[in-house]
Design brief:
The protein is mainly alpha-helical. Helices cover 71% and strands 0% of the residues. It contains 14 helices and no strands. The longest helix has 28 residues, at 33-60. The radius of gyration is 22 Å and the shape is globular.
């Protein structure tokens, strides 16, 4: 005989389990182990929906004219709805977070929700937004950055030591890297868009090309396609890659305290991009370059952490990362399509910025007790498994 559990019965049981926890409390209250796991599993689901929606969204906008109710936006909205629900739980009950984590999650969600209507207004007033680097888009990224940072800190402070803690922390760092790198995907899709035009088979639909041309006040020609595909200076991509992407990997390595963490996080993100690329292509959506160079830079970060002095580690690591990323970009460009290359001196500017960020991260991680090796002796403020 088979026993089938109906969705209605499952929902009822879930509500009965959750209701006793729905009490107002301050951040840092003792959190039952099962509740802690459910909350952070929910965050992993929310971020997964947001990443899938975002990946489809950037490809969609290189093919179709913008639509508020486009499928990628709806998929992203599922993740946003779950994230909003979890934010309310953390803010009201105080479960699963310390005060800093709670504030980061709350402010991040608020900034994101404020950015959504501002972005809609921006599109209504200005029409097609041809760059992912616009102010309203940046607010979306910043809001998500604060949100993911708060969740990462909450898990770091509350999860018991062990393999699960490390794996989930690594997964959250992958989500953090994806969010930070998201605007740079415009250039990665852009170079493929230009190549498709040069082959005589544009990936963008005629309605999108015409709309972009009308907005620029010119005919549909190659200069218009280049401006649509690469609307920001070529120097931005490598500088952002060295500074922004690499500092996320530095933080990931320091927080886990495990060797090769930076490489694993970078490789996971690159593997995801390499997987989503053919899926999009098969369904007729535009393709993109994949930032394989990140893995080379991440390996240098992991090697740099063999240096015990934090100042020497940051300075020497920044030099090594800059040199290797510059060469990796050139090798990748020779073997495959990448955004336009720039002089090594420009990449060095990103290395100088990375050095400053790395030094700041070394201080901040120590100051706020966020180093992996420091947590084994710390009693959790948010969970007592």
């Amino acid at each position: 005989m088979k026993f089938v559990v109906s969705p209605k019965r499952s929902a009822t049981q879930a509500i009965r389990w959750a209701l006793p926890y729905w009490t107002r409390g301050k951040a840092g209250r003792q959190t039952p182990e099962d509740l802690f796991r459910v909350l952070y599993f929910g965050w992993l689901v929310a971020f997964s929906f947001k990443v899938l929606g975002a990946s489809w969204d950037v490809s969609w906008h290189f093919k179709w004219l913008r639509d508020d109710l486009a499928p990628p936006h709806l998929l992203n909205s599922v993740g946003t709805a779950i994230a909003l629900t979890l934010t309310i739980v953390h803010l009201y009950t105080g479960y699963g977070v310390d005060r800093t984590s709670q504030r980061l999650i709350g402010w991040g969600t608020a900034v994101f929700l404020i950015a959504v209507p501002l972005d809609l207004i921006n599109h209504r007033v200005n029409g097609l937004d041809i760059t992912s680097w616009s102010p309203s888009h940046m607010m979306l990224y910043i809001g998500t950055l604060l949100m993911v940072s708060g969740v990462t800190r909450g898990w770091f402070m509350g999860a018991p030591p062990g393999r699960t803690r490390t794996v989930v922390l690594g997964a959250l760092c992958v989500f953090l890297l994806e969010n930070v790198w998201f605007p740079a995907q415009h250039q990665e899709y852009g170079v493929f868009g230009i190549a498709a035009w040069d082959r005589g088979r544009p990936e963008a639909e005629p309605i999108l090309l015409q709309f972009a041309a009308d907005q620029m006040g010119r005919a549909i020609d190659r200069p218009m396609v280049v401006r649509f595909s690469l609307p920001v200076p070529d120097e931005l991509y490598p500088v952002y890659g060295v500074a922004a992407a690499m500092i996320v990997l530095v933080v990931a390595r320091a927080m886990t305290g495990r060797i090769l963490t930076a490489t694993a996080v970078a490789a996971s993100y690159v593997a995801y991009r390499a997987l989503i690329w053919p899926l999009l292509a098969v369904t007729g959506f535009p393709r993109s370059a994949v930032p394989v160079f990140m893995i080379a830079g991440a390996l240098m970060i992991d090697l740099a952490f063999l240096i015990r002095n934090p100042v020497v580690r940051a300075l020497a690591g920044s030099v090594a990362v800059t040199v290797v990323v510059d060469q990796a970009l050139r090798l990748q460009s020779a073997a495959y399509l990448t955004p336009p290359l720039v002089p090594t001196t420009v990449v060095a500017a990103g290395g100088a910025l990375l050095a400053l960020l790395w030094l700041g991260a070394e201080w901040a991680l120590t100051r706020f007790g966020l180093r992996g090796q420091d947590m084994e002796a710390v009693v959790s403020a948010t969970a007592n498994p």
